């Protein structure tokens, strides 16, 4: 309707206003956005965790770690080829006591290594894998290298404990192999790790036996050299020490740091766990026991066999002292039952 105005009390019609008001246009409502395909857009980049399974295995790094892995079994098993004879020559002990000191000196390496594995692992988590690996290789190499110059049983005990103190290579190398591999390549990577460990078990006694008493075994080469006549087992331990130092150099110049390169997510796992929480985690305790059992059997069959074949007279004396065979057989039976229940 046209609007009216009052002029001098009289209403007047505004002729300029249209009689019909324009129809109001409908207010647009919020509609769903139209789907548009942008063929030129690039897909988002995959994160490290997304393509971790497809990451290729760094074979060079794995081989360097396997070379470093050789040091621990070589340093441990090499001395068993001459340890019994060395104890008999430098120690003021009876023949019946050689077996006891042989087991004592030989086991102290593993004992100290076992007690310090967890602290070394924590140190590698804090300071890095590579520094711990270099310190470990250097310490084991030096402690084993001077073992052949020992002139008393307490010196051998001290040096073997010192070598075990630094023997953290197996823990660090395992971790670095895991961090260098993906779930698809871990089996192959740890296959290399196992092969390297068995090569070390094979090579260690060969080095110890082939290079002990060089003045007697190779008189044309080492005969008349006073050093090897006074210290007949020094050449073997020196070579093992040099091998440890070469492994340390490989770790310094060729092995890359792996701390912080990967993050692990597992249901129920935490970033920092106590030893009790770790052992209570599903499957951990069983794996620990299986690893302990297999290592026990391997050490018994390797170091024990070396001692039996290298010192047959001393072994026969030790077996004569075992009189209560029923007790030993019952212990074996009980242990076998416990093993079967697991």
Describe the overall structure.
The protein starts with a strand and ends with a helix. The chain has helices spanning 59-69, 71-77, 83-90, 98-127, 129-145, 153-166, 169-180, 186-211, 214-217, 219-222, 226-230, 234-253, 275-280, 284-310, 312-320, 325-341, and strands spanning 4-7, 10-13. It has 342 residues and is mainly alpha-helical. It has a domain at 59-258: MFS general substrate transporter like domains (Growth Hormone, Chain: A), CATH 1.20.1250. The chain has a two-stranded antiparallel sheet with strand order 1-2. The longest helix has 30 residues, at 98-127.
Features:
342 residues, mainly alpha, Growth Hormone, Chain: A, two-stranded antiparallel ribbon, 16 helices, 2 strands, 63% helix, disordered C terminus
Main sheet specs: 2 strands, antiparallel
Q: Helical residue percent?
A: 55-70%
Supply Rg.
Answer: 37 Å
> Strand order within the widest sheet?
1-2
User: What is the distance, rounded to the nearest whole angstrom, between the alpha carbons of the first and last residues?
Assistant: 99 Å
In one word, what is the shape?
globular
């Amino acid at each position: 309707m046209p609007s009216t105005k009052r002029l001098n009390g009289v209403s007047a019609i505004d002729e300029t206003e249209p009689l019909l008001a324009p129809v109001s246009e409908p207010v647009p409502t919020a509609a769903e956005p139209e789907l548009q395909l942008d063929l030129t857009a690039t897909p988002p980049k995959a994160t490290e965790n997304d393509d971790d399974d497809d990451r290729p295995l760094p074979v060079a790094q794995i081989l360097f770690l396997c070379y470093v892995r050789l040091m621990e079994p070589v340093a441990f098993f090499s001395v068993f080829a001459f340890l019994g004879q060395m104890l008999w020559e430098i120690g003021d002990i009876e023949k019946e006591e050689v077996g006891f000191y042989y087991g004592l000196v030989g086991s102290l390496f593993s004992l100290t290594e076992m007690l310090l594995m967890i602290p070394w692992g924590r140190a590698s988590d804090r300071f890095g894998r590579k520094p711990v690996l270099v310190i470990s290789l250097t310490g084991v190499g030096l402690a084993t290298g001077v073992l052949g110059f020992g002139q008393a049983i307490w010196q051998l005990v001290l040096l073997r404990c010192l070598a075990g103190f630094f023997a953290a290579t197996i823990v660090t190398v395992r971790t670095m192999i895991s961090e260098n591999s993906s779930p698809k390549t871990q089996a192959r990577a740890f296959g290399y790790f196992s092969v390297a460990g068995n090569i070390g078990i094979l090579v260690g006694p060969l080095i110890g036996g082939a290079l002990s008493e060089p003045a007697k075994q190779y008189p044309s080469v080492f005969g008349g050299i006073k050093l090897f006549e006074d210290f007949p087992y020094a050449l073997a331990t020196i070579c093992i020490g040099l091998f440890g130092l070469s492994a340390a150099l490989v770790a310094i110049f060729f092995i890359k740091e792996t701390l912080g390169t990967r993050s692990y997510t597992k249901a129920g796992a935490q970033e920092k766990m106590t030893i009790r929480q770790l052992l209570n985690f599903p499957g951990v305790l069983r794996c620990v026991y299986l690893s302990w059992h297999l290592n026990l059997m391997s050490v018994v069959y390797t170091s024990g066999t070396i001692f039996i074949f290298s010192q047959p007279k001393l072994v026969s004396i030790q077996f004569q002292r075992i009189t209560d065979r029923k007790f030993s057989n019952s212990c074996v039976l009980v242990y076998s039952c416990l093993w079967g229940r697991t």
